[in-house]
Amino acid sequence: xxxxxxxxxxxxxxxxxxxxTREQVAALVADARELGVLAVCVSPSQLPLEGAExxxxxxxxxxxxxxxxxxVKAAEAARAVADGADEVDMVINLGExxxxxxxxxxxxxAAVRAAVPAPAVLxxxxxxxxxxxxxxxxxxxxxxxxxxxxxxxxTGFHPTGGASVHAVELxxxxxxxxxxxxxxxxxxxxxxxxxxxxxxxxxLGLSGSASVLDGFQD
Length: 218
Description:
This is Deoxyribose-phosphate aldolase. The chain is α/β, with parallel strands linked by helices.
């Protein structure tokens, strides 16, 4: 079993509900500090964050549908970094992915990458539950070709569901350590988190971080 500290340092402590208030986001940051997690992930309108010193600040882009113009996603990502985000989790154009238009998917990701060059970290949400295995592989390859740092399973808002062990295994095998793999969506206890880590996840997106971490020991 992975140690509690090691798991905490993989967690993006997340609050992306559209109704989230600034007070709730402030509580999220305080919880993150108390739990010892790596990062917090909030909606871009909540930036800049107060009291987040020492935490990685992540936000989302083109969220949750991904069906935005690339120029809009790029502008949103650039604004987020200007407002203090260290990492941006963008959603792919799922319609283009399902149509097999991988050049368009890659160009969309590349536009955001160009807007937020390193050291900003770019994670690409592929909405894995909506894709078959071949599409998951192709989405990972497009993400890598476009210069992403991570591939991520899910927004947590799509009706097809969140992360699965199978998808994480397939994503990890495809990127083979060249990119990180973030499992997100529906991970609610230590057993689920451990399964994702064993499948190859290097980051976990969690809204219930405390209940997950309660199942681990140092």
